[in-house]
From TrEMBL:
One of its GO terms (cellular component) is plasma membrane. SUPFAM superfamilies: MetI-like (SSF161098). This is Oligopeptide transport system permease protein OppC. It comes from Arthrobacter oryzae. Keywords: Cell inner membrane, Cell membrane, Membrane, Peptide transport, Protein transport, Transmembrane, Transmembrane helix, Transport.
Length: 328
């Protein structure tokens, strides 16, 4: 009987190892090494982790919060008492930035992770069953793609969905709306890749052996597009953060009293010349967030690339020895 795992590239990738000069290196370790050798990617990871920690523990380093008003320091610049200054209402900008960063990162992570999961399941299901199932699911996908996302966000967050609006915080409502529209492009790409995988021997062997469809999708289709999914997560997080900032900036995203980077940037735009710290602080944080994610995405793409020039130390030693033999 045919060994199914021996035919499945994903299964082989999990168990396979690369041997150089007697040193056995697992594939996952090679990918990690490639990523860690990319100084730009590591810098992006450090910045993102630092901002995430700042958003969750930064509030413990100040006695002010986002709701307390300091009547003696209204619209004041950075000082010893208020590290980043205060807003026009006298609220500590440091506390607002901590809260806004946390909400923006939360929106990005939830939308980025969940949307990719939905896209993977939906796209692989379309490819596996094909036929009428694929046609119906593709019709639904195309119909959702044609829906005007901007209009739906505006209606959902401005009170048009009265019941939801009164019961859910604006940031959670925005997450739900973004999840509706953020997975469809990835799902179409995954469908195309999965259809090619359906013609591979290891999938056909699994079908002949009577393995349930759910297990085939999760065990054989999804792992073979794992690198694409990982890259789409970082892109999805970046896209969700930028979408939150854009929607909140034009007034249809996060609503006061909830705070986000988009809200802070939008409120300070008209006073950028009078209160520059209110504008540049959240804008700088947003650039650091999206920039760090972009650097991580580039590093992950190189790490997953089988033709990457980032090789292990053992491989490097072997390459040097081969070069010496050729020259001698």
């Amino acid at each position: 009987m045919t060994n199914l795992n021996a035919l499945d590239p994903a299964a082989v990738a999990e168990e396979a190892a690369i041997e150089h000069d007697g040193v056995v290196i697992a594939k996952s370790r090679i990918i990690l090494r490639r990523f860690l050798r990319n100084k730009t990617a590591v810098a992006g990871l450090v910045i993102f982790v630092a901002l995430t920690l700042f958003s969750f523990v930064g509030g413990y380093f100040t006695s002010w919060d986002k709701e307390t008003i300091d009547p003696f320091n209204i619209g004041m610049g950075p000082s010893a008492e208020h590290l980043l200054g205060t807003s026009q209402a006298g609220i500590d900008l440091y506390s607002l930035t901590v809260e806004g960063t946390r909400i923006s990162i939360l929106i990005g992570l939830v939308v980025g992770l969940v949307s990719v999961l939905i896209a993977a399941v939906y796209g692989c299901t379309m490819a596996y069953f094909g036929g009428k199932v694929d046609k119906v699911m593709l019709f639904i996908l195309e119909a959702l793609i044609m829906m005007p996302a901007l209009l739906v966000v505006a209606v959902a967050t401005s009170g048009g969905g009265s019941g939801l609006k009164s019961n859910l915080p604006s940031w959670l409502l925005l997450i739900i709306v973004l999840l509706i529209f953020s997975w469809m492009g990835t799902a179409r790409l995954i469908r195309s890749l999965s259809m090619s995988l359906m013609q591979r021997d290891f999938v056909k062997a699994a079908q002949y052996m009577g393995i349930p469809p759910r297990r085939i999708v999760w065990r054989h289709l999804v792992p073979n597009i794992g690198s694409l999914l990982v890259l789409d997560v970082t892109r999805g997080v970046t896209g969700a953060i930028l979408a939150e900032v854009a929607f909140s900036f034009i007034g249809i995203g996060i609503k006061v009293p909830d705070v986000s980077l988009g809200v802070l940037i939008g409120q300070a735009t008209s006073q950028v010349s009078t209160f520059p710290w209110m504008f540049w602080v959240p804008l700088t944080v947003m650039f650091l967030l999206t920039g760090s994610l972009a650097m991580m995405n580039d590093g992950l793409r190189d790490a997953f690339d089988p033709h990457s020039s980032s090789i292990g130390s053992a491989a490097g030693r072997k390459a040097k020895k081969s070069a010496k033999k050729k020259t001698s």
